[in-house]
Structure formats: C-alpha cells, structure tokens
Amino acid sequence: MATFNSPPGWPAPPSADWQPPPGWKPDPAWPPAPAGWAFWLNARGARSRGPSGRYGAESPTKLIAAWAVGAGAFVVILAAIAGGNTPAASAPGATVTVPGPTATVTVAGPVVTVQQTVPGPTATVTQAPLPARTVTVPAPRTTTRTTDPVPLVQRTQSTAPKTTEPSDSVYYANCAAVRAAGKAPLYRGQPGYAAHLDRDGDGVACE
C-alpha cells in the first residue's frame, strides 16, 4: 500500500495511512515541494507511482517513460564498465593497477543507482618474488657389514706322530743317572723307565 510523503515545510498527515482525497490540492501558503520529490512511497520506503487520480500520483505513461530512460542509462553505463580492463591477479613480480575513485550515477524517475569505476591516478605496486624454498633430502642410510673372508682351503693342524723309543733302547742304572740326563721323573712307558727305578711301583720312577 502506498503512503503519502509530505514535502519539507508541509503539515504532517493526520495518520500514517492518510491519503489525500480526490481533487485535493495543497495550501498555496505552503512552500513548494523540491524538484523531483516523491509524494508516494511503497511499504519498503521506495518511490511509488501512487493511487491513480490522487495528488502527486504519477501517470502510467510518465512512469513507463521514466523506466525507459533509467533502463537506457543503465545499459549505457554497463557497456562502459564492460569495456574496461579487468586487473589481473597478482603474482610474484607482477604489476598491479589500483582503480581510481568511484562515481555514483542517479537517474531521475525510478531510483536506479549504478556505481562506475572512473579511471583516476593509478598506483603501481610491485611485489617481490617469493624466495625459492630449499628442501634438504637426507641421504639414504647405508649399512656396511664386514665379514672375514673365508679361506679357500681350511688349515688343518697336523700333529707329528710322537716317536717313542723302545724302553729297552735307553737304560739307566740308577736314579742318579736319570737325574744327570735331565729325565727325572720317569713315567711308565717312557724310554728308560724300569722297575728297579720305581721302588714303590706307582708308575713314576725317580720321584
């Protein structure tokens, strides 16, 4: 529902939903309304055409013309914006162009607000390249096992056969002779052992 919007200096409506009756005219002593004043507002507070035949209501023909003018201006502004260059994404070592001030264009009639970027003084920002990242990869572990070489031919210890002289080839007359020869004591089976040298018969002579 459209509500009447009184211009500055006019008396306030008696109620929020008050509407001028058909044929109503403002008092000539009241100050004139500002140029382009919106006498009628919708529930959202935006400009409305208003009830047909009431004071300040816009005719459908005038509203359509205003919409056409606003749409044409909007298309022209969009074409101008689309013709501009889009700044590229910043990269290391790239040059970035900062846009200038922003202008707001308002078209009479239905409120159409368009923001257009007007080229202004540009600032060049140079971003230093990022340092290269150095990744250190640890060297693989190497395990060295030292094993003794296996000889091709295993050594075998050869034991020289013991040569035993027959006991009868050596003869000692007594223990004094055994001691003089450096053979004391004599054991049974050794060269020179004899029973007459082993008095106690325990197998050890000249103890």
TrEMBL record:
Annotated Pro residues bias: 8-31
Keyword Lipid metabolism: no
Sequence segments annotated as region (Disordered): 1-31
TM regions (residue ranges): 63-82
Keywords assigned by UniProt, alphabetized: Membrane, Transmembrane, Transmembrane helix
Ranges where the Excalibur calcium-binding domain occurs: 171-207
InterPro entries: Excalibur_Ca-bd_domain
Protein's name in the database: Excalibur calcium-binding domain-containing protein
Record organism: Kribbella jejuensis
